[in-house]
Description:
356 residues
Amino acid sequence: xxxxxxxxxxxxxxxxxxxxxxxxxxxxxxxxxxxxxxxxxxxxxxxxxxxxxxxxxxxxxxxxxxxxxxxxxxxxxxxxxxxxxxxxxxxxxxxxxxxxxxxxxxxxxxxxxxxxxxxxxxxxxxxxxxxxxxxxxxxxxxxxxxxxxxxxxxxxxxxxxxxxxxxxxxxxxxxxxxxxxxxxxxxxxxxxxxxxxxxxxxxxxxxxxxxxxxxxxxxxxxxxxxxxxxxxxxxxxxxxxxxxxxxxxxxxxxxxxxxxxxxxxxxxxxxxxxxxxxxxxxxxxxxxxxxxxxxxxxxxxxxxxxxxxxxxxxxxxxxxxxxxxxxxxxxxxxxxxxxxxxxxxxxxxxxxxxxx
Length: 356
């Protein structure tokens, strides 16, 4: 059994018997980065010359709070998804050298607190309704086991239950990230992927980097990597349909990420419609559609009594290929590009470093 996630041969997790008759699986996820529209209202008002954007600053107005709309949409289709919640550091919790970095100011201004009554109520409603609540590790937590553990503990305290897994903020990963996840009791990670490219670059099935019960669900598509559906809806849909067809042809586990704020039609037209069409089409094609945590529970893990078999992964000739990759010393941290930083519509670069 491998002792670390840097071993070149990774095993893939076989399809669970409960969904073996499905054509493929579509995992639905939402990273909760910016549930409140604040300084972005001023930016949008100036950029678009539209003073109506300032209405979002009025008490009781928050157009980016889209959770009820997402829950209603998914419930109407009979599916559930995962929401990954973030506990980003307060600026004063950071070293003084970070106080002069505009990047960390952006992170600070988008920060929210899990312990507020509004957020606790949301967590309760998601949990009671069958949605998965997971961890969105903060920007530096990918390389800080103690911080990641603290964030998991705080989320579980607010939720009143354990969390199975999650995804790192900005898709950050380093050589020990999966070690940290296992150590603090997370059972899966959904970070490997890109916000600028989409596809099955990490293979068609979940991975087992340690050849045990810990599972990695690669990200197939993030919404901001697609053509803007507000301007080119049919082009964006064509890419989604192509991914669905590829998933069906390869009995794949496909994973999609839609940030909740992008369901705000006034600010991000077309994304809500595109998401609904993606889910509807997957269901029409006979896919199993749901949250990664639910799929994880259906898997037969090593050491279980189910007796189910797994499929061996394929060794690649390229050391930087989809299944393995090479980890640069010191890990990898993506940065916001300035246009997206101003808008806080996060679109980071492709993370080509792998912990596996």
